[in-house]
Design brief:
The complex is a heterodimer.
Chain A (H helix, E strand, L loop, with lengths): L14 E2 L2 E2 L5 H4 L2 E3 L11 H11 L4 H14 L15 H13 L5 E5 L7 H18 L2 E5 L3 H7 L3 E5 L2 E6 L1 H6 L4 H6 L4 E11 L2 E6 L4 E6 L8 E6 L5 E2 L9 E13 L3 E9 L2 E8 L12 E7 L4 E4 L1
Parallel strand pairs in A: 3-4, 4-5, 10-17
Antiparallel strand pairs in A: 1-2, 6-7, 8-9, 8-11, 9-10, 11-17, 12-16, 13-14, 13-16, 14-15
Helix pairs in contact in A: 2-3, 2-4, 3-4
Chain B lengths: L14 H24 L4 H10 L1 H33 L4 H14 L3 H12 L4 H9 L12 H25 L3 H9 L4 H29 L3 H6 L7 H10 L4 H31 L3
Chain lengths: 313, 278
């Protein structure tokens, strides 16, 4: 909303290509915008909806028609030009909104949870389509979503925001595997976070000891200092149950008691209690060997030191 | 049990209202028309004669003309007020709504007499105008068309404002934001998006005001001059003064038909709105 100019900026600046746009009115910012509820004009047909930004800019009729039709082709709606929004499905309405947002070739397109109202299968298909259009036209898209998979599937860069502050910016893989803090770590996918105190920091590595007295090795996250509280972060799919046959890499080990197991389709999710009140999540790909233990039995967990990061808490 | 056949869908709840309507409205109406028209042997000729008589023809034109002017004025004044209401909340919204609603619940006669006090030769308005020096002699504001228009516009304004307000409230504010973000300025957004989306409210409100206008009696009778006779006043004269019930019935029938036709249009408009999904 602030980017679009509908909300006032409390402080700071917004730059687009080195131009500060704070104080520029929405209609002069020249951003394409796609709303969550599509915001298709109900009294105009598809053609006129897409033509709207061009008519507002007084584009000559012949060029207007050409550009509207090519935008409609891009979203594969050229046969629906005469329809009204109420005659279209949710996915088609979303395509109209996208065509309308790109037809005037804005440098930046803002999408505010555009796929929130669609069902899961359609969402995935639309994600790919939006990504394809974005790359075809080479435009910048600022895409707001609460869906982590969507964020990772579509982004070149993800900015994780927490009550108006950016917690971390980076490529999806980097944000997923090397979160800057516990919020970012928890936000994208499941995360194990074991709290403890840093005992040693050396060469980008730390030793962290939990309250129960177990020591772990981990990569040092930003802002981690000796003798301070920190959380050891490791993704559930990196953790193994049982001792691997041969250790090619340095690993952390911990013992626990196998708890509840959930079947989530592509993975089995095991809860392992390290000590009362501290649980770790272990994801095992469906089709791979099970934990080899019954619930309530003791198991040993291990994961590569390089997959764990100590994050400030 | 066989309750399925006698499923209670609550439709009996409208029976009292229906009975009241039949006894107090439809019955007397039929009785009145029967009384007034049954005695007449050549009804069609009589009807043509009544409706083409100079007095009635002039009155019909005057009635429609005044109603049209009132509707336009009410629309011009009401639309901005409705817009203000639809885009404000909190105290300012409550204050404006209060100013609209309270007179709405006050007797038309009381309000009409209040206007007569204000608009008379020595009324507040003329005193004010002369005090400021805008005019030397009192401006005739009463017992002419100006008076009728002021009075009727004032009485009918709430109907227009509330109808348009309702249609504006149903406009998704994100549509306006979308228009702005797509490069449309305030004026373009208003005329291309906001006004078309509020248009059914404009049509509904105008029809309501027009329908109410053509049947108006008190305000034109009290505030109008000799040339501002409206059809309802003519009917009243026929009943009360000349005892010509046949003429009264014919004119009433005409008024009823016009009202029903306009109501049919109004019904269509609201129906179309539902089809448009908003």
């Amino acid at each position: 909303m602030m980017l679009a100019g509908f909300a006032e900026v409390d402080g700071g600046d917004i730059f687009v290509d080195r131009t500060n746009i704070v104080g520029v009115r929405p209609q002069h910012r020249g951003f394409g915008m796609v709303f969550q509820n599509y915001a298709i004009f109900p009294h105009l047909n598809v053609f006129e909806n897409v033509a709207f930004p061009l008519r507002a800019r007084r584009v000559p009729a012949a060029e207007l028609k050409k550009r509207v039709m090519s935008a409609l082709e891009l979203v594969r709606l050229e046969r629906f030009a005469d329809r009204y929004a109420r005659q279209l499905s949710g996915g088609q309405q979303q395509r109209v909104a996208i065509a309308r947002a790109i037809v005037f070739r804005p440098p930046v397109v803002l999408m505010d949870e555009p796929l929130g109202a669609l069902d899961k299968n359609l969402r995935y298909q639309m994600q790919l389509e939006i990504k394809e259009i974005q790359q075809q036209l080479g435009m910048t898209v600022v895409y707001v979503t609460h869906d982590q998979e969507e964020a990772m599937n579509m982004s070149d860069r993800i900015a994780i925001m927490n009550s108006g502050r950016i917690e971390q910016v980076g490529p999806p893989r980097e944000v997923y595997e090397t979160p800057a803090n516990t919020f970012a770590g928890r936000f994208l996918g499941e995360a194990n976070l074991l709290e403890g105190t840093i005992e040693e920091v050396r060469d980008g590595r730390v030793r962290l000891r939990t309250a129960a007295g177990t020591a772990f090795q981990a990569r040092a996250g930003n802002g981690v200092q000796n003798a301070q509280r920190a959380a050891l972060f490791v993704r559930p799919e990196r953790v193994r149950i049982g001792r691997p046959a041969h250790d090619e890499v340095e690993r952390n080990h911990v013992a626990g008691r196998l708890g509840r197991t959930s079947f989530l389709g592509n993975i089995h999710r095991h809860m392992v209690e390290l000590e009362p009140g501290t649980e770790m999540i272990v994801d095992v790909q469906n089709g791979q060997a099970g934990p080899g233990a019954e619930p309530g039995q003791s198991v040993e967990l291990s994961w590569p030191v390089s997959d764990s990061i100590a994050l400030p808490v | 049990m066989t309750t399925a056949r006698r499923a209670d869908d609550g439709s009996w709840l409208i029976l009292p209202a229906l009975a009241l309507l039949l006894i107090a409205f439809v019955g007397p109406l039929i009785w009145f028309f029967a009384q007034a028209l049954a005695t007449e042997e050549n009804l069609l000729d009589r009807a043509v004669a009544v409706l083409t008589s100079k007095a009635v023809a002039t009155t019909i034109v005057t009635t429609n003309w005044i109603s049209l002017l009132v509707t336009l004025l009410v629309l011009l004044i009401g639309y901005p007020i409705a817009y203000y209401l639809a885009n404000r909340n909190g105290l300012r919204f409550a204050a404006v709504l209060f100013c609209i609603i309270v007179p709405y619940f006050t007797s038309v006669i009381v309000r009409t007499y209040s206007w007569m006090v204000l608009l008379g030769r020595d009324g507040l308005v003329n005193q004010g105008l002369m005090a400021v020096g805008l005019t030397d002699a009192p401006v005739p504001l009463l017992y002419n068309k100006t008076g009728v228009l002021i009075g009727m516009v004032y009485v009918l304004l709430p109907y227009m404002i509330l109808t348009i307000f309702a249609s504006m409230k149903s406009i998704d504010p994100r549509l306006v934001q979308a228009a702005r973000s797509l490069g449309a300025g305030s004026a373009y957004t208003f005329f291309r998006v906001y006004f078309p989306l509020s248009f059914h409210g404009v049509v509904s409100g105008s029809l309501i005001v027009f329908i109410l206008s053509i049947g108006f009696f008190i305000t034109p009778a009290l505030m109008g001059g000799p040339s501002d006779v409206m059809i309802a006043m003519l009917i009243e004269r026929a009943v009360e003064i000349t005892f010509d019930w046949t003429s009264a019935a014919i004119m009433s029938l005409l008024l009823l038909i016009i009202t029903l036709l306009l109501y049919a249009v109004y019904y269509r408009v609201t129906d179309v709105r539902r089809m448009m999904g908003g």
